[in-house]
Design goal:
Number of strands: 0
Shape: elongated
Order of helices and strands: HHHHHH
Number of helices: 6
Helix content: over 70%
Largest sheet: none
Length: about 190
């Protein structure tokens, strides 16, 4: 008889795989000099791609936990916990990578990303016909947030925002994944 993993073990595995994918993609972009904030279209494309991968991992994790571990039925709250734990483990793993990267590997990389973002956003807003006063105010806000930013608080902020985002996403996916036991088969 196979011993089935606990929910914690199962979600750690999925979170580690998703976190590993995030780390590898981040490293590849860094090594090849791909600056994702160099244009608004790049940022949108990357965000949509990451969002799609996260949805696939969370929904697959919930379904596999339901079918392989629980024998085909899962409550809404069990599915919610599975999705949320996957995302929290992914965030902690990729967050530690970001922390090490921004503290030791390339401490100036975050500033380069913000500068590329400011440049692309400035261009985009000019092309959209935004008044110069509004552009200047927004650039000042970005500079203030950049000056108050550091790797450790960003790590905790990412965990918090992932908890909020993960809860919302897991609520939605869990509503489609839940499958109650058939009362006749009991």
């Amino acid at each position: 008889m196979d011993k089935k993993p606990s929910m914690l073990q199962f979600t750690m595995t999925y979170g580690a795989i998703l976190g590993g994918l995030s780390i590898v993609s981040s490293l590849l972009m860094y090594l090849f000099g791909y600056m994702p904030t160099a244009s608004v279209s790049r940022m949108v494309l990357l965000a949509l791609l990451k969002f799609a991968v996260v949805i696939v991992f969370v929904s697959t994790g919930m379904k596999n936990y339901r079918d392989k571990i629980l024998g085909g039925s899962i409550t809404f709250f069990q599915a919610l916990y599975v999705g949320l734990l996957i995302l929290i483990f992914e965030t902690v793993l990729s967050g530690f990578y970001d922390l090490v990267f921004n503290l030791y590997i390339d401490p100036g990389y975050a500033n380069k990303m913000v500068e590329a973002f400011k440049s692309s956003f400035f261009t985009w807003m000019n092309l959209a016909g935004t008044p110069q006063k509004n552009i200047d105010e927004l650039m000042d806000m970005i500079e203030k947030s950049q000056s108050n930013s550091s790797p450790l608080p960003n790590f905790f902020s990412n965990i918090y925002s992932t908890f909020i985002f993960g809860t919302i996403l897991s609520l939605i996916v869990a509503s489609f994944t839940k499958k109650n036991q058939n009362p006749v088969s009991r």
